[in-house]
Specification:
By secondary structure, the protein is mainly alpha-helical. It is built from 23 helices and 5 strands.
Length: 484
């Protein structure tokens, strides 16, 4: 095996983390971050929409740091930096020398699928790291360019931890298993260590599985809601396909595309062909079931690593190609950074194509204004008035910026934390249509609209004062439950 390019890989990984930290305090929290901060304060073995690890971690970091958004996002920035290093290690596993390892790390570092999630403390960046570490370990276990290693128990450990981050890991493991069965090397599956790895993963996942089972498998209901477009990041089949060419970077298609081809055709990495089958299985599976475009993002660091080897060989054959590669990567980084990071002033993204390519760019702006507006309306109502929100982002923003306001929501895990008190007869509803409210309340009055300052999902949301519940909250609350 080529030696590990330790110093340059460490430098590229550290530079990625530093870049993300530099922009971590611009704009504000994302709706998912606000949600996780509240969810982690309700410790459980699971939530209706995800396993517990990231919300618990987010809440713990927030409590220790005194509410620092930089500290919160430092976790994501470090995860992104480690992901970059793992990309270089995967390139080495696939025969890449020092230059190929560094190129792979750089490509992972400047890709949209690293910078966008690496800027936010959500499940996505941790899940991407888990996928890449799993693929790196699997490549070692099957023996690409070396004798197979016996690191299956580590595969089980990482998979088990990953399953407490995001259930999507199951899809990767199943697809890789299909790949190993279809194209091999099948003999590695005969080891007792494979069964031991599965047992370790299942044992670590068991608490969340038990929670889901005892709560009627709400994550399946959520998956169905996402499949029919019940998420802001849901995409049509055509968008799903197109985003595979855009979300990493159009320039980097020229790296991961040859990487996919090389994994299938190059006899030197024949034992890695299962990755190609896994990619095809997941691509088709997510496309047909309404999965989100970024669900495939965890495979791209491996494809970039595979493509780094032929790209380096191509560059070495011409004296001017190094400069051309450097310029292409620089342009890619510049464009990707503007799209994925809060580089522009807070009000500018809405006037550019950026939100169409990265909706999160405007979803981290305006939460304090929303919370202040709602709190002002509540202050004008009778004592005991509570807030009822349409989604967990609105509820999370009020919990963060206006903790004196009592807030409830029927959205995802917020519904699990219970309805308003029985004596609450007046609510300020955020983002809920008056027609829907009239099914539950005798009186509704539109009093205001949310102005976040940018054209995001909350801009123009209705504020309605509703009073006179038609039934007791114990009866109304099940009717207000919503997944998405």
């Amino acid at each position: 095996m080529p030696p590990i390019a330790r110093r340059p890989l460490s430098l590229v990984g550290a530079a990625t983390s530093v870049l993300l930290l530099l922009f971590s305090a611009r704009y504000g929290y994302h709706r998912d971050e606000l949600y996780f901060l509240v969810a982690g304060g309700h410790p459980a073995f699971g939530y209706v929409d995800q396993p517990p690890l990231v919300p618990l971690l987010a809440h713990a970091v927030d409590a220790v740091s005194g509410g620092s958004i930089v500290a919160l996002r430092a976790v994501a920035a470090v995860a992104a930096g480690v992901l970059v290093v793992v990309g270089g290690l995967i390139a080495r596993e696939l025969g890449g020398d020092r230059d190929a390892q560094v190129l792979a790390a750089v490509c992972v570092a400047i890709s949209g699928t690293t910078l966008a999630p690496g800027h936010l403390m959500t499940t996505t960046i941790v899940d991407l790291l888990v996928w890449s570490v799993l693929l790196w370990l699997l490549l070692r276990c099957v023996g690409v360019g070396r004798a197979p290693t016996r690191e299956w128990l580590l595969v089980g450990l990482v998979a088990g931890i990953g399953l407490e981050v995001k259930t999507l890991v199951v899809a990767l493991l199943a697809a890789c298993l299909v790949g190993l069965v279809v194209v091999g090397p099948r003999e590695v599956l005969r080891s007792w260590r494979v069964l031991a790895a599965a047992a370790i993963a299942l044992a670590l996942w068991a608490p969340n599985l038990l929670w889901q089972a005892t709560h009627d498998w709400p994550q399946l209901e959520l998956s169905r809601a996402i499949a029919v477009g019940g998420s802001a990041t849901s995409s049509s089949p055509a968008e799903f396909v197109l985003l595979q060419l855009v979300q990493v970077s159009p320039v980097l298609v020229l790296v991961w595309g040859p990487g996919l081809w090389r994994l299938w055709r190059d006899p030197d990495v024949r034992r890695a062909r299962f990755v190609v089958v896994a990619y095809v299985v997941l691509f088709v599976g997510f496309l047909l079931t309404g999965g989100k475009a970024y669900y495939l993002a965890g495979l791209y660091p491996t494809l970039l690593a595979a493509g780094a080897v032929p790209v380096v060989a191509f560059v070495r054959r011409g004296s001017g190609r190094v400069l051309g590669l450097a310029v292409a990567l620089g342009v890619s980084l510049l464009v990707t950074a503007v799209i994925t990071l809060p580089v522009l002033p807070p009000t500018m993204p809405a006037d550019t194509p950026v939100p169409d390519l990265n909706s999160d760019s405007v979803e981290t702006v305006g939460w304090p204004a929303l919370a202040d507006t709602v709190a002002a309306v509540v202050a004008e109502q009778p004592p005991g008035t509570v807030v009822l929100t349409a989604n967990y982002g609105e509820a999370g923003a009020l919990a963060r910026y206006r903790p004196e306001v009592e807030v409830y929501s029927g959205h995802n895990a917020f519904w699990s934390w219970g309805p308003p008190p029985a004596d609450a007869t007046t609510v300020v509803a955020v983002g809920i249509a008056p027609a829907e409210l009239r099914r539950w309340f005798a009186s509704t009055t539109l009093v205001d609209r949310i102005d976040t300052g940018v054209d995001n999902e909350e801009q123009g949301a209705l504020l309605v004062v509703a009073s006179g519940p038609r039934q007791e909250w114990a009866v109304l609350w099940p009717l207000m439950r919503r997944f998405g």
